[in-house]
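Lecture 7 notes: from sequence to structure.

We start with a single chain of 448 residues. Read the sequence below before looking at the structure.
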Amino acid sequence: MEIGWLSLLPIVVAIILAFTIKDVFISLLTAIIVSGIILDVKNKSLFSGFNSIYKVFQDDYAVKSILFCLMIGAFVYVIEASGGVHGMVEYLTKKKQVVKSQKGAQLIVYFIGILMFIDGTSSVVISGVATRPLFDHFHIPREKLAYITDSTSSPVAWLVPFNSAGAFLIAMISAQVSAGTLDVDPMNTIIATIPFQLYGIISIFIVGVVIFLDKGGIKENQSLSNKSTQIVYEGNDTPQVKNMVVPIILLVGLIISMMIGTGDGSTSIYIGVIITLILTGIYYALQGVTGLKTYSEWVIKGMSNYLGVTMILVLAFAFSNLVSALGTGAYIASISRSINPIFIPAMVFVLGAIISFATGTSGGTVGILIPIVFPLAVSLQVAIPVVLGAIISGGLFGDHCSPISDSTILSSMVAEVQVMDHVTTQMPYALIAATISCVGFLALGVMV
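Now the structure, written as tokens:
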């Protein structure tokens, strides 16, 4: 049995349910069941869909990501419970008056997102955790926090070649060089691609425009009864800013130093947050903020707060694996090959967006499309930097609009908003950036 167009059915189901019932958990679980039925019929097997859920825990990267989300929940809770968050708000708004307005709070998130180029995931977490109390203090919708963190972190991570995303691109291009498809220097090619990452550049620019000009375009979802509006504080002493600053410095320093030392992004983030939680507990105990027993209770409480969104992440990984097994990405690419060379960059951008939206991963989209598109681009004499820029741009756009994207889920989690509220908030701005990018790639197709 050839799957063909049936490979698109689970994606359609997931999209329709996500935007109608606005429950990502149910949408993903239903799509997993549909995917499993298709694979069961094809392979004459049983329960492929349900089995895909436990198989997520056989993948090192997935397990690290899942544990990372739980531990970030713990990290957020302990710096709140210690009084660090309360101390930070008091320090920035009353003592030093560094942040005096809604615009100032948003600009801090924006600049952290840009400066934390070493990794998109850590950028989302650090900028979100550090500034969420400021957003609450100035009554800025948390949906806007999720939008700013998500729309700066991933684009910046792809634009800067000296990080984990750059290492991934070097590996992918090197594979094409080894196969004889290309005769280029991988790093030079990546650097040449930077100006052609149109969607990422435009997306970052639009965020800045929204911060300066938006007069309430992003509204808070008042129906979220589980959204906390008061800062948790359970420590023994007066709230102090150092109880938030020191753990964040530890987290940033450990992640960056381990990335430099190991070159393994997922391991560095995972290990970094574990060590940070341990050192933070010791630091609080030495200060007398809390005892180690109470601190361990804080950690468990924080993890439990993030259990729901972590389960969504598990289902997202399972669904992504099923989509790969169905060959959805390859099928979409195969029906899009017969096209005029002039339209190649724009076609690749659209194709990348569709695959990324369907699979929830910009990195996976890049990995799917490079081996398919590069030989086509070489045969049609289309400039590789332009094509690679289109692949990355499409991957980012689809990722920003996808409710099953790990960055979408993480941004929602850190801001403590519903995933679909974040998606519907971010999508209009993403569509503007995508429209401009598509026009740009059409123009580049004519010029190159």
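The longest helix spans residues 419-447. Keep this in mind for problem set 3.
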